[in-house]
Amino acid sequence: MCTVTVIPTARGHRLCCNRDESRARPASTDALVRRAGERTAVMPIDPTSGGTWIGVNDAGLVACLLNANPGVVRASPERWMGRRSRGVIVPRLLTCGTIEEALDSALGLDAADFPPFRLLMICEGRFAVLASDGSVCEAEQPRGLGAPLMLASSGLGDDLVEPHRRGLFDRMLRMHPPEAAQEEFHRHCWPDRPHLSVVMSRPDARTVSRTDVDVTPGSVELRHERWRDETGAVESSAACLRIHSAVAPA
């Protein structure tokens, strides 16, 4: 369960991801530097799966995964029991050096191995989204990152929360410059609708962390904040990598 936005910046692009999780799930690690095949990557680790939902490598490739929650998932959750953790997908992609390689790797996954998900990949000012319904993976061809993006998921149903968060993001973009709108959006909570909010809260789940990835020519930086509780207490970490291929501004 996540809310993800991407905006073009003056020198590249910035991705922000709020992660929503069960209150019973252990907290993620700090931002860690790890080997990913022949590449170096930065990612927080989910201790339950040993994988991650977000990361970036030294080719400037960003990968971010959201659980998908269509009606069939909510109606028959037992259908997905025994499948592999989606946390292994992003580390696999971070071994790649281009968005084409990452897309090919993602399309090589057996959708039947995992519960449904959506996967956002960005590199060199282009992005692609791959969606799996638990049976088949379908992907867009990479295209230029010319305008802000927003994706959202929720265990209550993606179709329930995404229109509310999308409408809020669009209104903020009309009112503020993109970077200010993105920042305000990822800190926003409706007091009367916390279950629908970007910073969400309900009895069984809450927003537990925020991860920002800045990609500029020559370098990438991943910053990870763990929100220990709803009082605003934060534990933060960050790591930077030098890019080993040219990254064009978006």
Structure notes:
By secondary structure, the protein is an alpha+beta fold. It is 18% helix and 37% strand. It contains five helices and 15 strands. The chain has helices at residues 71-75, 89-93, 99-107, 158-175, 178-185, and strands at 2-8, 13-22, 32-36, 39-43, 54-57, 62-67, 117-123, 126-132, 137-139, 143-144, 149-152, 201-202, 205-216, 219-227, 234-242. Strands 3, 4, 5, 6, 7, 8, 9 and 10 form an eight-stranded antiparallel sheet that branches. Strands 1, 2, 11, 12, 13, 14 and 15 form a seven-stranded antiparallel sheet that branches. Strand 12 (201-202) and strand 13 (205-216) form a beta hairpin. Helix 4 (158-175) runs antiparallel to helix 5. The protein is globular and about 45 Å long. 41% of the residues are buried. Mean pLDDT is 91; it is low at 246-250.
Question: What are the SSEs and their pairings?
Answer:
Elements: E1 2-8, E2 13-22, E3 32-36, E4 39-43, E5 54-57, E6 62-67, H1 71-75, H2 89-93, H3 99-107, E7 117-123, E8 126-132, E9 137-139, E10 143-144, E11 149-152, H4 158-175, H5 178-185, E12 201-202, E13 205-216, E14 219-227, E15 234-242
Antiparallel strand pairs: 1-2, 1-11, 2-13, 3-4, 4-5, 5-6, 6-7, 7-8, 8-9, 8-10, 12-13, 13-14, 14-15
Helix pairs in contact: 4-5
